[in-house]
Amino acid sequence: MPSQPPAPPTAAPENTPDADWAEFEEALTAWDELGIPVPASEVRAALAADVTVLNQQPKPPAPPEPEPVPGAPGALVPTPRPASEPAPVAAPPTASAAASAVHTATAEADAHADRLKDHPEWQRIQTLRGALGNVWNVLKEKAGPHWDALRADVRFQGFWKTASIRACQAISNSAASLANRLSRGGDLPAADALLKLSDSTITYSTAAADPTSAPVPPSAQKAPADKTPAVEEPAMQRLVERSTPPPYATREDALRAGQEVTARFHAWIGSPMGQELAESSHRRVADFREAWQKLPAHAAGPALAVGPYTDVAERAKALVTAAVGAARFEPGDLQTLQALAQAADNHAARLSVTLPPGVAAKAPTAAAPPPRAATPTLPAAPAPRASA
Length: 388
What we know:
- By secondary structure, this protein is mainly alpha-helical.
- 56% of the residues lie in helices and 0% in strands.
- It starts with 21 loop residues before the first helix and ends in a 36-residue tail after the last helix.
């Protein structure tokens, strides 16, 4: 939603994005020049792990096995295309159309998630999706009323274009690799969905990298002095920004969803990963612990619960991002933590649209408070006031 990380029980140096990603630093320069109150250094620290995941150059997928030639059992040589059947030539899609295809293919692949969740390639895909989405959401949240001006800046557009291309290239490689293995194992529906995901993401990368899709230079972004320039949303926003979720129909529905988040916490804290990290003082673990301790009782109203549940989701996602590529924790444990993050995120999203008219939710703080030492214990009651 991506090197062995620092051992969680001990303090570790902060992650910093690779120095060769100039577009990220240029976007932060734009951030400072726009006078956004949140300092760029805070943004850099908040996105370090996600940018590192996105900055890893993808490896090409393993080539598919050659097809047997009819009449020659066991002979593995490529089947040539007859000269009379030239490859069809189609006009390349626009980046916007390609992004729509990515959105559709992603939804189709997600339908097979239960069978894919234990495969490292699928976990890698989820890590990349999570990192790309978190970069967008953190920048949007911290920019606040300056968000439209930031998106209109050519330096932000260049960074986002590069980030989405790299993410889609890596997703394409992982999807193709897993599809090849699943097809050999006989799971053709999942393999077909992954091949569509691989094709759509590499198509987007090609379309977005076309020079004709370059960001509009600032000189071309004319607008009245009293009006913010109209900004066309970057194509990959369709992948990272979800549609508005339905509100809870009853108080009992919201209560059950909060209880589900707590149940997922129980499942994770009881896992080997959860037990190992329970008393860790590592920054990401401490951030998650503190966010969990701030959750209100399940019966609390939406206005009090939206911010805390959003914070729990963000801290859990950050913990997953930091650990998923380490080959140190069991895939099932990582999946359990990811499910907790998703449940908290979905609950917060539905609570946010369940608020009575005119009532604003208490937003999470822009930066987490300093970590504090705590001895975690399992929750003894349904109310999620236990620490991790």
